[in-house]
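Narrative progress, year one. The postdoctoral researcher (J.K.) led the effort to move from monomer predictions toward full complexes, under supervision of the PI. The following entry was the first complex the group processed end to end, covering 228 residues in total.
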Amino acid sequence: TQLLEQSPQFLSIQEGENLTVYCNSSSVFSSLQWYRQEPGEGPVLLVTVVTGGEVKKLKRLTFQFGDARKDSSLHITAAQPGDTGLYLCAGESRTGRRALTFGSGTRLQVQP
Amino acid sequence: NAGVTQTPKFQVLKTGQSMTLQCAQDMNHNSMYWYRQDPGMGLRLIYYSASEGTTDKGEVPNGYNVSRLNKREFSLRLESAAPSQTSVYFCASSEVFVGTGFNEQYFGPGTRLTVT
């Protein structure tokens, strides 16, 4: 069974601070996705990273895929209250079923 | 374009009762999924349907059944609800392209189920 561990589980910061969320596994993934989920809603895809070492930027969010494609990080610069939510990473393996393995999530609260 | 829709949004059941959760997508996706989300455990796959006419078990299938009614609709049935099935249930869909495609999923708003 492939497992994805996310850290930290909870993060409460002030508006304007920077933060990094980590997603780690002992398994290799063909791609890794990050989703954000707001209270009472379903997860929404933010980005997919595919190549080892790949970096993608989405405004103030920077996503990186580890060189060995076993881990990923999400860095938020100058966090805003609108960034509040649950951040989930999900890995896809090309072997077997084409289903995603989700991490347990990082709950971020940005205080104004 | 509604994306993925789920009904009902909330449901309370007594132990032993049955119910069906409905899911529909209008994006012409081939693959559909049912997940449950419990506090601190992320999303766990219950069943999935890679294409119309096929269904397969996921990580936690016990106590559930599914039906892929057509390309648009994928339902989840609880035959005899148990308190351990209290959870938030999400349906998702994706178009998994052959070769270099990725399984990027689109989620519905969820059904919050309580079993007493």
